[in-house]
Amino acid sequence: MLPNRMQLNKTVEEQLKKLKANTGITPNVSARIAFFRSIESKYTFQPNIDYKLDGGLTLDKFTWLGKTQLITELLLKQKYPELEGKELQAAWASHVEHGISALRNHKNISELVNSA
After folding, report:
1. What count of other Cβ atoms lies within 10 Å of the Cβ of residue 114?
2. Which of 19, 45, 86, 102 is found 20 to 30 A from 114 (Cα to Cα)?
3. CATH fold of 5-115
4. What's the pTM?
5. Pfam families given for it (predicted)?
């Protein structure tokens, strides 16, 4: 399962903060939206590529995932049964990065909602 403390890539973190400034949606909620958009798109994390988790925003997994924690971990384990701990966290972070690319340029919350 995922570690209790998790972080993202610094670039993704900045994109989440920018999205919060534009829409008011907190980084943890927008990370959840980005993760599920990425899963729906059939994106696959490549574990053999070194993925940096160098962001400064380290939160516990319940804060990052909220009520989606169980389904997020189950989806990750189904898609990546060979991964554990930090590798699984990197997969989650990679999915957030992939999913945020479609969300990061929205200027307000109604624009974001209408794009779904």
Report:
1. 9
2. 45
3. Arc Repressor Mutant (1.10.1220)
4. 0.90
5. DndE
What is the number of other CB atoms lying within 10 angstroms of the CB of residue 105? 13
* H or E segment and range at residue 95: helix 85-100
Q: What percent of the chain has pLDDT over 90?
A: 72
**Domain segments of the chain: what residues?**
5-115
Query: How many other CB atoms sit within 10 Å of the CB of residue 21?
Result: 8
Cβ atoms 34, 103 nearer than 8 A: yes
Convert 29-51 to b/e letters by CB count within 10 Å (16 or more is b).
bbbbbbbbbbbeeeeebeeeeeb
Span 67-96, average pLDDT: 96
Residue with tokens 């949606």: 25
